[in-house]
Amino acid sequence: MQEENKNREFDVLVIGGGIAGQESSLNLANMGLEVLLVEKDYSIGGKMIHLSKVFPTLDCSACIATPKISETARHPNITIFTYSEVKDIEKSGKKYIARVIKKPRYVKEELCSGCQECEFVCPVYVPDQYQYDLVGRKAVYVPFSLANPRVAAIDIDNCILCGACEKVCPTEAIDFTMEAEEIEIRFKAVIIATGFNLFDAHNKPQYGFGKFKNVVHSMQMERQLVPTRPFNAVLRPSDGKMPDNIAYVLCTGSRDKSVGNPLCSQVCCMYSIKQAQLLMGALPLADVTIYYINIRAFGKGFCEFYQQSKTMGVEFVKGKVAQITETENDNLIVRYEDIFEGKVKEAEHDLVVLAVGALPNPDVPDMFKNEKVELGEFKYVKQVDRFACPARTSMEGVFVSGTAAVPLDIPDSILSAGAASSEVNSYIKKLGI
Ligand SMILES: Cc1cc2nc3c(=O)[nH]c(=O)nc-3n(C[C@H](O)[C@H](O)[C@H](O)COP(=O)(O)OP(=O)(O)OC[C@H]3O[C@@H](n4cnc5c(N)ncnc54)[C@H](O)[C@@H]3O)c2cc1C
């Protein structure tokens, strides 16, 4: 370990740079505390930066997220390590010590101007994870247009080491000799803001995701509806035609014991209604049908938003979808139980969107070396007193914010980040060091 990487001191370590991690960091930094924000992806922003609009106001998600991202990135009390992971955390007296691994992006951050010259000459194409595999990207790439830092990275597993990027880089930022760096951090408190994982739709094989081209998941539909979308219009993958009869299958991977997740994901009903309304604008002649178990429209303005979608012409069918099959022309047959009529029925659609739910992020328990932070019944970080102090975990000095604790929408993630930062502030004051 290099000398300058040993014993670096911060007041708080925040793990995860989604909306909850950013909000926690900003609150603490504005209280005068020194924060280290560790993000495992190339950019901070979490899932929110990839969303189209937000329910129920239909405000542009990126227009809310980007000022927050810039404020976090520029705050003098916040240091950010992107493409980094916490290897382990252990208690040392009243403080904690963590070892953080900064992985090599093979591009010098301080030199890269984000000009993308490297990207234009790279001959390799692989699926773009930031567009949820709808289109391709190069092996050297700026992750996405709103990335912060807006710096290229080389996906070394797919790079053919042809050196084309190195030759064109105007600032000589490409460095194939870069290695992982280990940095030792001391801090007084930690906030876990590692968010949630999306349910992998392959794990519900009866819905045909990955087998039938016109079965997509809801994050793929979000990407088709954002201003930075991969195509000019919403298209169905099999033939690039605009769909005109779209189905949403709610509770894909949520409230479903057969996939090991009985929990409601809190956001799928509302984001599906949001997407249905946006589709009505993008494809005015299309029919949209939502298959649901119950519509959970529990927040401020949610029920009105749901009613509005009905007046716009979205059809709601109360029935659990059992199976999806494909016709010869790549349309889909949805087999479902119509609960009101008590009958099993079938309907044909030309595009099916699976409203995938939230799953706990499994990274958390492995971070702690001696004492493990406890998980709750559904494997999210356990809130020891959910009602009185929702940010507190089983470990002293370890707090949780956002969807690392429970599935939440954006406003509730921001509220929970507020709770976590004020708990941390009083904890540090009490520590008296
Ligand atoms: C399709 C879809 C549409 C949605 N639409 C809406 C909407 O319209 N309105 C709304 O209110 N909500 C919506 N949501 C919910 C919204 O995405 C969440 O409320 C929000 O993203 C939660 O923020 P978070 O910071 O808790 O988690 P995340 O956004 O998941 O951020 C977690 C961050 O932690 C990082 N991380 C993970 N593990 C580690 C690790 N080990 N070390 C370091 N960093 C790590 C991740 O890379 C990520 O940057 C939608 C969700 C989906 C799936």
Question: Any overview of this molecule?
Answer:
By secondary structure, this protein is α/β, with parallel strands linked by helices. It folds into three domains: 3-102 and 180-195 and 361-431, FAD/NAD(P)-binding domain, CATH 3.50.50.60; 104-178, Alpha-Beta Plaits, CATH 3.30.70; 199-358, FAD/NAD(P)-binding domain. It contains nine helices and 25 strands. It has helices spanning 19-30, 61-74, 117-121, 164-168, 218-225, 268-282, 302-312, 364-367, 410-431; strands at residues 8-9, 12-15, 35-38, 53-54, 59-60, 78-81, 84-92, 95-102, 125-127, 136-138, 140-141, 153-154, 181-187, 189-192, 196-198, 215-217, 245-252, 287-292, 315-318, 321-326, 332-338, 343-349, 351-356, 358-360, 398-400. It has a five-stranded parallel beta sheet, with helices on one face. A five-stranded parallel beta sheet has the order 16-23-17-18-19. 44% of the residues are buried. The mean pLDDT is 96.
